[in-house]
Amino acid sequence: MRAQRAVIPRPRRARATLTSMAAFVVLAALIPTTASAAGTQEVDAELPYVCALPSGQAPATVRISADFPQRVKAGEAFSPTGVTTTVELPAQAVADLTARDAAEVRPVTRLAVGVAQNSATAAATWRGSSEPVALPESGPLTLTTRGDVPSVAGRSDGDLTFTAGALAIDLALGTAEGTETGAGTDSDSDSDSDSDSSTGSASLTVDCAPAEDAPDKRLLATVPVGPDSPGAGGSPSAPAPDGTSSAPESGQRDQQGDRSPRVLENSPGTAADRDVPPCRYDEQHPPMPRSLNAYVTGYANVKKQKGASYLPPSCVLIMDGGEFQPPPDEPFDPEQLVMTLEATGEFNYQGRKETPPYDSTFLSFDFTPVKATMVLKQTGPMKINARMTMRYSDFFITTETYVRVPLIAQVTALEVNGTPLDVGSGCRTGKSLTSVEPDPAKHPGDHVVLYGKAEQVFGQDSTGYTLLTGGPLSGEVTIPAFTGCGTDGEDLDRLLTATVSGPGNYIKQVQGQTCTPLVPVFETPETKGQCTEDLQPYQIPVAER
To answer: How much is the pTM?
Structure first.
């Protein structure tokens, strides 16, 4: 990754700024209290955005409305209420969706919101959803979503400001007959905006960024924090609720962190909510100079069941993060710089190369509930291959990454219609889950292939996936037949094979920002956290459909 930083120089401790969607920032636990009943201020902001549609960049209008308190006390948590996000996409978006045989969409929005107080910052994500919306025959497409948002508390006196950032719109597509076919259901093709499929897609994620001419620097609201008296709001050295000074002391990272507003996520994925397996190097797995660690999570479709399994956050130890180098077997390209990277990694759960156990429940044969507890076990090396190109003409950077890993699915418990069945200790797929390999001569054998792509305009943050910053990875797998299932002469192989096995199972994984244990980047008011104090990944990603 060093070569990429050499192209656009930036300090090592500022690597996290590459990611377009800020990591959730929660700096301390806090029991929310009710905000002071000092009245409310109504916010209705209309902002210009630019959205990346399948057919190209297009302008959009985003309207954000919410109610904020007029004033709160230091340490007093509150949640904006009545939060509504309305997105008007141009007719170009309707054409893109109808080209995928969609007649309606069910939107889910994820708005990045910056929260700042006295030069210290934090980040939150405002999520919203709505019922399906029919595509208009002509004109723009208007989507309105509503939802709960995280609570926020100012640590000391001084204005809290809320600023709109990047917006992601997840669109589950429905057919003309009204059949819901969003990600998490049966899908015959990729379901993100990078899909190369010509047959359409069951879902689409549209990434939008604020336009450069957005008014008032995208400010949504300002909430004064402090007593309702003259001169009360704005002293950087005002005492915090516990009586300590909120002004940072040189070299004291914890006190710097105490200055940032507290963002209390009401949804999974916050760094402070460590309800995930540990993810750290130890004596059995000592870090090397280029070692990384990260969490991954996501969904995997089971095509036969027209449903999806949630894959919980899993630890990946990237033992050797590699380094971008010129490809030795390619001639010099006068139009662009080409660099490649090779890295290796492994899942790590309680010292084993596997994911945590997870439950999948389906209606087998459309009427019998079947619940299986499963584990994905790694049976060979995880290989990560990235290729970066930078055009000399405008310094536009594209990075394409393939993650290859052989995985078997092992069933550890099974219930059919509420009745437990003993599957034994060796119930598993007969071989690795398999994907279509784009380069079988170089990468033979059965394995899963996941693909991610990132793009970066010179001087701006990258969008998409890179090994360092994380992001979405997608692929499609065939689930092999099961073997070794059942005890006492009861053969359950055919039940599981008939229920689960087969081709065309779409996977969408989200990797979080990596931590570099030997050169950790901790959370400060000026730097987004990459590592916790005990050198685990700071960011816990949230699965996306």
So the answer is: 0.54
